[in-house]
Design a protein that fits this description.
One of its GO terms (biological process) is amino acid transmembrane transport. It is found in: Membrane. It comes from Musa acuminata subsp. malaccensis. The protein is mainly alpha-helical and about 425 residues long. The chain has one domain. Helices cover about 70% and strands about 5% of the residues. It has 13 helices and four strands. The strands form two sheets. Strands 1-2 form a two-stranded antiparallel sheet. A two-stranded antiparallel ribbon has the order 3-4. Helix 1 runs antiparallel to helix 8 and helix 3 packs antiparallel against helix 9. The two termini are about 30 Å apart.
Length: about 425
């Protein structure tokens, strides 16, 4: 909001929310191949792509989806460590004052997050846990509400709204920096709406007879997009209104607020709890893909296929698979190390949002829908869908360029592991 201003900010958020809902609705119709009543189920995003598109597109989609998952894991690790560092610093500022120096190294917190994810990654079908979505919803509501409330209080204390119609003014930043920041902001918004890669997996958990799966998923998508958009806009509005050009990239970790410190700690704790679970949910498709591939490649290897029964309690046991243990632990370690090398949250998130939004949220859902429903080529509907896809491609390229410029700028002054 700070980069886009009072006019473009809300307009861009509404545009992204509309595109996300529309393409998600198209994707929901691709859950079953062929007949919506009796057609074959597609249990994952990749299954849907394989059922509707040709070989080269399937491979490209696979590379993009799994690369995006790796990126999301890195982004979540960085975000969680920033919130943990914010908790440490807020307590420090409370003790020595707002003007004090409270330097904190984020690397130990990234390692802590990584260790937790190593253990959680060994839980089979983690994304199927019934209480997970409830905890995520509670945590999201908690930190969003706290950020919104603190913004409102700050606006009241200021005696009015701050900010400009066109965003950060030239002078506060250079004209070129403003352009790069605007493009990066587009990527950040795109990342916030990029959940299509797990939409099919979520739809597969719906206990409803066909074709109600698609109807229920569309309703759930409409509600979730509407609610998240309202919260995004309210938090963005209040943050920009409270601090204007000086608004931090993250209201809860950028120390626009220092007190009440305990409330900031609660909000950041909620963020960490949310990200701990979200990391696993997003990584499950990649975990499953690699493990299935390994089982096909080495069907006679005990290291890959053997399930060792480990007694836990009376009558229950845990199925330990050595390949799963090793592969998932290595994945978490690698993403943690990369996070320690590139701890630039806004730039990294902007880049991830840029490269993932057009292909996975827009292009493939549109292409699958065209094949699934046999939309005639060069018909009005076909042309409109292609124009939407092309417009989103242009936005993706521009926002990726802005985010890369931000990363390059950060790397000039950053020393790894310090």
């Amino acid at each position: 909001m700070c980069q886009l201003g009072w006019v473009a900010g809300p307009a861009v958020m509404l545009l992204f929310s509309f595109v996300t809902y529309y393409t998600s609705a198209l994707l929901a119709d691709c859950y079953r191949s062929g007949d919506p009543l009796t057609g074959k189920r597609n249990y994952t995003y990749m299954d849907a792509v394989q059922a509707n598109l040709n070989g080269i597109k399937v491979k490209i989609c696979g590379y993009l989806q799994y690369l995006n998952i790796v990126g999301v894991a890195i982004g979540y690790t960085i975000a969680a460590s920033i919130s943990m560092v914010a908790i440490k610093r807020s307590n420090c500022f409370h003790k020595i004052g707002d003007d004090g120096l409270c330097p904190v190294n984020s690397n130990p917190y990234m390692i802590m997050f990584g260790v937790a994810e190593v253990f959680l990654s060994q839980i089979p079908e983690f994304d199927q846990l019934w209480w997970l979505s409830i905890v995520a919803a509670i945590m999201s509501f908690t930190y969003s509400s706290i950020g919104l409330a603190l913004g409102i209080v700050q606006v009241i204390q200021n005696g009015g709204f701050r900010g400009r119609l066109t965003g950060v003014s030239i002078g506060t930043v250079s004209q070129m920096d403003k352009i790069w920041r605007i493009l990066q902001a587009l990527g950040n918004i795109a990342f916030a709406y990029s959940y299509s890669i797990i939409l099919i997996e979520i739809q597969d958990t719906i206990k409803a007879p066909p074709p109600s799966e698609a109807k229920v998923m569309k309703k759930a998508t409409l509600v979730s997009v509407a609610v998240t958009t309202i919260f995004y806009m309210l938090c963005g509005f209040m943050g920009y209104a409270a601090f204007g050009d000086l608004a931090p990239g993250n209201l809860l970790t950028g120390f626009g607020f220092y007190e009440p410190y305990w409330l900031l700690d609660i909000a950041n704790t909620a963020i960490v709890i949310h990200l701990v679970g979200a990391y696993q949910v997003f990584c499950q498709p990649l975990f499953a893909f690699v493990e299935k591939w390994a089982a096909r490649a080495w069907p006679n290897s005990e290291f890959v296929t053997r399930e060792i029964q480990v007694p836990i309690a009376s009558g229950t046991s845990y199925k330990l698979n050595l390949f799963r243990l090793t592969w998932r632990a290595v994945f978490v370690i690698v993403t943690t190390v990369i996070s320690m090398l590139l701890p630039f949250f806004n730039d990294v998130v902007g880049f991830l949002g840029a490269i993932g939004f057009w292909p996975l949220t827009v292009y493939f859902p549109i292409e699958m829908y065209i094949v699934q429903t046999k939309v005639p080529k060069w018909s009005t509907r076909w042309v409109c869908l292609q124009l939407l896809s092309f417009a989103c491609l242009i936005i993706t390229i521009a926002s990726a360029a802005g985010s890369i410029a931000g990363v390059v700028s950060d790397l000039k002054v950053y020393r790894p592991f310090n």
